[in-house]
Amino acid sequence: xxxxxxxxxxxxxxxxxxxxxVAVDDVSLTLAAGGSLxxxxxxxxxxxxxxxxLVGLESPxxxxxxxxxxxxxxxxxxxxxxxxxxxxxxxxxxxxxxSLDPRQRVGDGLAELLRLHDQEDHHHPVALLEQVGLDxxxxxxxxxxxxxxxxxxxxxxxxxxSRPKLLVLDEAVSALDVSIQAQVLNLLxxxxxxxxxxxxxxxxxLAVAQQVTEEMIVMHRGRIVEQGTTxxxxxxxxxxxxxxxxxAVPRQGWRPARQ
Length: 259
Known about the structure:
By secondary structure, the chain is of the alpha/beta class. The protein contains nine helices and ten strands. Strand 1 and strand 2 form a beta hairpin.
C-alpha cells in the first residue's frame, strides 16, 4: 500500500520575538490534500503566530514548512518566491475590512489580483463573487457599503483568485453575527467540496471547529498539548487544558463561577 504524503507539513516550528518572548515552541503538524485542520486555544496560545508562519507573514526562528514535499522559503524570500507561495496558500483574516482597500471598488480589486496571478483567462470578478454567494452589484461597491458578512465573502473571493491548495482562516467568522456566521461556514463547506481545497482553521470557538474540521490540535502557551480527530478531542479529551476549554463552553445549566 502506497502512503500518500501530506500536502502541508510543518516540523519543529519555533518563533521567538524581541525580548526573548517565545510565542511558538516546537510545533509540528500535517494536513492532507483537501483536509481540514483546526488549531484551537485561547488568546496568546500561539495559534495565530503559527498561521502567519505558514503563509509567510512571519519567519520561523527554527523549523521547516513544506508544501507537496517542497520547502517553502522564509520571510527573506524574493518577490518570485513570495508570489509562488501566495498562489498555493492564502489567508482569510478575522477583520475583512482591514484587508480591503476602502477606496477601491470590489470588482477592481479582484481584477487587479487576477492580473497579478495570471488568472484573467480563467476567472472574471463577477464569477468569483457569484462563487461566494454575491451578485454583480457587489463588484461596483466599495467595502464601506457592504455588511460584515458580505465583506468576509469578498475576502474569501480574493483568497480564491490564485486557485490555492490551502486556505488558512484566522478567526474568520468570529466577528460575525451567529446567523451570518452559519451562512459563511456553509459556504466554506461547499467551496471545499467543489474545489477540493484544504483548510487550516484557527479558532477559539470549539463549535466552529466541530462543524468544519476533521482533525484538531490544541495549543497552550506556544506548544501543542493535544491532537487527534476533532470528534475524539472534543468527546474524549486527554489533557487537562482541553478539558478546561470544553468546561468553559456555555451550555444549559452552565455556571461561570464554577469554571
